[in-house]
C-alpha cells in the first residue's frame, strides 16, 4: 500500500480520510514499512467496512492487517444498534472465536530440557491434530446444547480443568446470549466428533520459553520470568464455527438487498443488529464462541495430563485465554459519551487496559494479557492492554504476524522434512501428521512478528511484556 | 487432457498422465482441468470444463487438491449431493461447501465427481474413501468456500471457468 494514499497522524497511526460511501474515516496502526508491505486490498477493505450502517468512530486496521474476507484480517469496527448498526458474519469470519490461551508450567527450560523429546511425543499422542482427527468426547443433543450455552464453564463442570481457570478466560468462560436453537443441525453434526481437537492450518500447540522481559511489573503479575516455560494453544470453534459462518454468510449476503443494505463486497454480509437475522446470528455466533472456549478448555485438560505424565506434579495454571474472531457487546466512551457498542474484531485481540471491570483482581493493575502467536520457529509475545487503546481503538490490538507468502509459494520454497530438521537443529521439535502442512506453515512464510508487535507497542495499543521462543510445536 | 496440479498450477502444467489414476473424467474435447490460484493467506480453486457442470466437477477436484493429491484418493464409495441457489455463482459456493461438510462429517476425501446442473439446481455425486492419514498425508482442512474471487464465466472458446477462494 502506498503511504501517499494516507494522512500520517504519527509514525504509527495513519488515517484514510472519508471519501465515497465511507461514513467514518479509516485508521491504520503501523509503521511505514508495514504500510508499504500491506496489500492494496487492505485499503479497499478498510474503506468498505467504513461504509457499513451504524459504524462508530472509525474503521480500524491493526499492524498485522492483511487481505481478508470482507473485513481485513486485523480489522476492528464497532456498531451502534441505535443508529442502525449491523452485525456481520463476514466481519467475524469462519473460525469464530479462534484464539490463543497460554498456560504457565511453573518449570524452567533447564528443567524441561532432559525430557523434551518425550514431552513432544506425549503431547503429539495426546492432542488430536490434523485433517480427519477426532476427539474422545461424543456429544449427544442435550450435552451439545449445554456446551454451546456454558462454554469453558461447561467443560470445567464436566471435569476438564479447574474452576480457577474460568477467571482467566474472556467472559468468565461462558459467553452470555448464546442460543443453541439458532445453531443448525449441520453445524452441530459437524462438531459431534471434534470436541478437544486442534484442527489444522495455522493452529498449533506450542511449548515455549521466556527469553526476554520488557515490563517487570506486568511480567510479575502474569507469572513470567526469563527461562520460564509456558504452553500456548491456538485453535478455534472447529467445524461448528465454520458451518455457522458458512450458513449465515450466505443468508446475510442474499438478504442484504431486501434489508436495504448495499454491500460493496458479498463477504461483508451483514444484517441490522435489531433484525430477526441479526439476532439469530448473534445467538449462533455466541454459541460458537462457547464452543471455542470449551474446545480450548478440553485441550488444556489433555495438555495438563500429558505434561504430568512426563513431569509428575506439573500444574499448568492458566495465564489467559483470548479470542480473535468475535463480535462482542462492550461499553466504550466515544467523544465523551458512554455507549453500548457491538465491537467486531476480525483477526484482532481484545486488549482491555488496567482497571477494566471485566478483568479479574490479579490482572487489574497490569491490564489484560494480549497473547500474540508467531509461527513455529519464530517468537511469540505477551503484551498487556493499555488505557490508550481503550480510548482510541475500542481496546484492541494485533493478533499475530500474518502470512507474507501464499501456501503454494511456501511449498515452492521449503520442503516439510527440511523445515522439521532445521528447526530440530535449533532445538525446536516439530510434531505434525503432514509434512506438506509443515512446509505451508514454514516460519519464513510469515511476516516479522517483532515488527508487528513493535508497531502495536509504539502506537500504544498494548505494552510489550515478554518475548517467547518455541521449544516444541504440535501442528495440525 | 490437461491437468493442472497443486504446486505447479501457476507456473506450469502437468499433462495427462495422472488423469487415469486420479479418476478425473476424460471429456470429448479434453479441456477439463483444474488449478489453484494465489490468495494471500488461503487458496483459490478453479475448474475449467466444456460445460458448466464439468467446470464444477473440476473445481471440486481443485478443492480436494488443497488437502491431498486427488490421484491418491480411491473412489470406493459415493455420496449424493443436491443443492439449489439463486444464481450459478452461489451454486458453486454451495456445491463446494456441501463437499466440505461431507468431508468433515464422514471423515472422507473425494477424488472423482459427477455433476448435472439444471437451472440453478445441482445434482452431484462424489466418489472417495475414508481419510487415511498415513497414505493421504492431508495438509490442511478447508473451513469453507467463500465469495472472494468468485466467478462463473464462459470464455470465447466456449469453455466454462468456475472459481472462488477457499478458507483454510
Uncertain residue ranges of chain A: none
Low-confidence stretches of chain B: 1-28
Quick one: CATH class of chain A? Alpha Beta
- What top-tier CATH class of chain B fits best? Alpha Beta
The whole-angstrom Rg of chain B is 14 Å
Number of helices of chain A: 15
| CATH H-tier superfamily of chain A | tRNA-splicing ligase RtcB
CATH topology of chain B: Archease, Possible Chaperone, Chain: A, domain 1
**Quaternary organisation:** heterodimer
Strand content of chain B: 35-45%
Distance between the termini of chain A: 33 Å
Mean pLDDT score of chain A: 95
Determine the CATH topology of chain A. tRNA-splicing ligase RtcB
What coarse outline of chain B follows from CA principal-axis ratios? globular
Give keywords.
heterodimer, A: 476 residues, alpha+beta, tRNA-splicing ligase RtcB, 15 helices, globular, B: 168 residues, Archease, Possible Chaperone, Chain: A, domain 1, 4 helices, 26% helix, disordered N terminus
Write up this protein:
The complex is a heterodimer of chains A (476) and B (168). Chain A contains 15 helices and 19 strands. Chain A is an alpha+beta fold. In chain A, the strands form 4 sheets. In chain A, strands 7, 8, 9, 11, 15, 16, 18 and 19 form an 8-stranded mixed beta sheet that branches. A 7-stranded mixed beta sheet of chain A has the order 1-2-3-4-5-13-12, with helices on both faces. In chain A, strands 6-10 form a two-stranded antiparallel sheet. The longest helix of chain A has 35 residues, at 276-310. The two termini of chain A are 33 Å apart. Chain B has one domain: Archease domain (Archease, Possible Chaperone, Chain: A, domain 1, 3-Layer(bab) Sandwich). With 168 residues, chain B is an alpha+beta fold. In chain B, strands 3, 4, 8, 9 and 10 form a 5-stranded antiparallel beta sheet that branches. In chain B, strands 5-7-6 form a 3-stranded antiparallel beta sheet. Chain B has a two-stranded antiparallel ribbon with strand order 1-2. The chains are: A alpha+beta (476), B alpha+beta (168). The A-B interface holds A 39, 66-69, 73, 93-95, 130-132, 134, 186, 189-190, 192-193, 199-201, 239, 242-243, 245-246, 249-250, 253-254, 265-267, 269, 402-403, 406-409, 411-412, 433-437, 440, 476 and B 6-7, 9-10, 36, 38-43, 67, 86, 90, 93-94, 97, 100-101, 104-105, 107, 130-131, 133, 137-141, 143-148, 150, 165, 167-168.
